[in-house]
Specification:
The chain has one domain: TIM Barrel (Alpha-Beta Barrel), CATH 3.20.20.70. The chain has eleven helices and eight strands. The protein has an eight-stranded parallel barrel with strand order 1-2-3-4-5-6-7-8, surrounded by seven helices. Helix 2 links the parallel strand 2 and strand 3. It starts with a strand and ends with a helix. The protein is α/β, with parallel strands linked by helices. Bound molecules: 2-phosphoglycolic acid (PGA). 2-phosphoglycolic acid binds next to strand 8.
Length: about 250
């Protein structure tokens, strides 16, 4: 059975002191109220707060993820960090190919393929994001777009390596907009992704791979979304900065 995963993506929010306070608050709520260990919790603060956050969550149900990783092992890449460096800071997951990285930093699926490979080589769990824009949805091109993102981004990932890959479906038109895909719209895409995974890697890998939904998930829509058979949790932006909302979403995922 797939273990539900809830990932908080803080994006570029919170300075170091604020990050530590927020991690501590969430850790406290999880310690006091998280009872049924069916969901796994990952929080992705800014790079600045990764190492100290990893120390703060030691011994708790929470682990720490990065919002990005470089595709190289090391070298003259100013402003970047490698998968091995993240591991050394206690980080367990890395978000790869978030639509904001694709849009503002020109990350293509081909670059994401290298990043996915770099992450899995270090046994850092790659959360590979895919998603169509509003115009791609309206023009009915979304399945081709998503398929291409899967084909290119997972190009060099083997079936064995898929046990350290999570897919996140985030329709770009639903991120930070308050517009959520309906639970059925999301389920349809998740089923499509799983079918694609079965075609490439075989049914057992498809059945074992977690596929998260992201885009304006809130406490009041989480249960409906997570209740779908092919939705294995969520990638949460705005609501993950509010401890109570984030925990209510975690609870909905159990
Ligand atoms: P949102 O962001 O929950 O604020 O829509 C989701 C994401 O970008 O991962």
């Amino acid at each position: 059975m797939r273990k539900t995963l809830v990932v908080g993506n803080w994006k570029m929010h919170k300075n170091l002191t604020e990050s530590q306070a927020l991690i501590t608050e969430i850790r406290g709520i999880v310690r006091d109220e998280f009872r049924h260990n069916h969901a796994q919790i990952v929080i992705c603060p800014t790079a600045l707060a990764l190492a100290s956050s990893a120390r703060l969550v030691e011994g708790s149900e929470i682990t720490i993820g990065a919002q990005n990783v470089n595709e190289h092992k090391e070298g003259a890449y100013t402003g970047e960090w490698s998968a091995a460096m993240l591991k050394s800071a206690g980080v367990t997951h890395a978000i790869i190919g978030h639509s904001e990285r694709r849009q503002y930093y020109n990350e293509t699926s081909a670059v994401c393929a290298l990043k996915n490979k770099a992450a899995v080589t270090e046994e850092l769990i790659a959360i590979y994001c895919i998603g169509e824009s509003l115009s791609e949805r309206e023009n009915n091109q979304f399945l081709e777009v998503l398929q291409l993102q899967l084909e290119e981004g997972l190009d060099s990932i083997s079936a064995d390596e898929m046990n350290v890959v999570v897919i996140a479906y985030e329709p770009v038109w639903a991120i930070g907009t308050g517009k959520t895909a309906t639970a059925q719209q999301a389920q349809d895409i998740h089923a499509f992704v799983r079918q694609w995974l079965a075609g490439k890697y075989g049914q057992p890998v498809a059945d074992a791979t977690r596929i998260l939904y992201g885009g304006s998930v809130k406490p009041d829509n989480a249960k409906d979304i997570f209740g779908q058979p092919d939705i294995d949790g969520g990638l949460i932006g705005g609501a993950s900065l509010k401890p109570r909302d984030f925990f209510d979403i975690i609870r909905a995922a159990q």
